[in-house]
Amino acid sequence: MKSKPIRMCIACRKRERQQELIRLQKDQGNLIRYSGKGRSFYLCTKCIEGQHITKIVAGREKIDIKSVEELIKELVSVKN
What we know:
Blueprint: E1 6-8, E2 15-17, E3 21-27, E4 30-33, E5 41-44, H1 45-49, H2 53-61, H3 65-79
Antiparallel strand pairs: 1-2, 3-4, 3-5
């Protein structure tokens, strides 16, 4: 029996199964959903709903804060 891949949320550092996290990546200074190419990182759904996540992701990944806010709003609206 194969074990499920475990990944870590970059905001809260909580380890979850890969399926339960949202995979994102930085593309030319903007935050986008993972395109299948290049490096990526994960965020848990609890952190996406939190208010402080935009500054954490923008600062840690050196991404434009406007693109982070837009994608976070999109992810929250899709979830609801």
